[in-house]
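Example S7 (structure tokens).
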């Protein structure tokens, strides 16, 4: 099989798996169904990925490639807080447009394990919080700001994917409340209530993030809400 054909087959298998995952976020998927979508036999799939986990890892890696391509194509405004806000919206948009990739990238977690692919987006966000801190615009440590942003941004995105319904008003309210919390500036609106609403929803679906991660997400969201009251 020519190299270009091998590459195309591998890509189609990854995309087929992502489509099946998107059709039923949080549920298992069949390798046989993946093969049928692409028109290959199971040995071909195992040749490329070795196992089901190997295929899942490839889907996660591809998802982060697509995500980073979008982020790196976005021109900086020159204002780190504005860039964080724009990055929040881009993050949510990516999740809603690519639920199959996103649910594996951020919804399937193992306590104590962080895929290497998580590192670069986190580093890009940390660079923005470092710049904001250098300008004296953060009320918290840059690492804590990153944790606040990731916990809330991921939680809001997963909520919309789970409900299969975009909620731009909630996303904007939680985004503004989170930025207000890390900068110490007023948010306006019912940000605290929105944060508690997301925390309550997450606690009712612990299998999506995992019990440990769900508890941590709820802790962060409620802490932010208490800070805004």
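Recovered sequence:
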């Amino acid at each position: 099989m020519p190299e270009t054909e091998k590459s195309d087959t591998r890509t189609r298998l990854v995309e087929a798996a992502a489509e099946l995952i998107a059709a039923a976020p949080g549920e298992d998927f069949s390798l046989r169904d993946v093969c049928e979508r692409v028109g290959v036999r199971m040995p071909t799939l195992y040749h490329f990925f070795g196992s089901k986990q190997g295929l899942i890892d490839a889907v996660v890696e591809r998802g982060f490639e697509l995500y980073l391509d979008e982020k790196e194509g976005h021109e900086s405004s020159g204002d780190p807080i504005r860039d964080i806000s724009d990055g929040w919206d881009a993050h949510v948009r990516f999740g809603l447009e690519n639920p199959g990739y996103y649910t594996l990238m951020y919804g399937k977690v193992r306590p104590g394990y962080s895929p290497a692919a998580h590192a670069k987006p986190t580093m890009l966000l940390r660079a923005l919080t470092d710049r904001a801190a250098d300008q004296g615009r953060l009320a918290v440590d840059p690492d804590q700001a990153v944790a606040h942003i990731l916990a809330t941004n991921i939680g809001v995105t997963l909520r919309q994917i789970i409900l299969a319904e975009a909620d731009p008003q909630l996303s904007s309210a939680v985004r503004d409340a989170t930025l207000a919390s890390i900068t110490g500036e007023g948010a306006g609106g019912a940000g605290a209530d929105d944060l508690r609403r997301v925390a309550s929803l997450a606690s009712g679906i612990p299998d999506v993030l995992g019990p440990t991660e769900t508890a941590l997400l709820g802790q962060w969201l409620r802490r932010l809400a208490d800070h805004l009251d």
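Notes on this example. The two ends are 63 Å apart (CA to CA).
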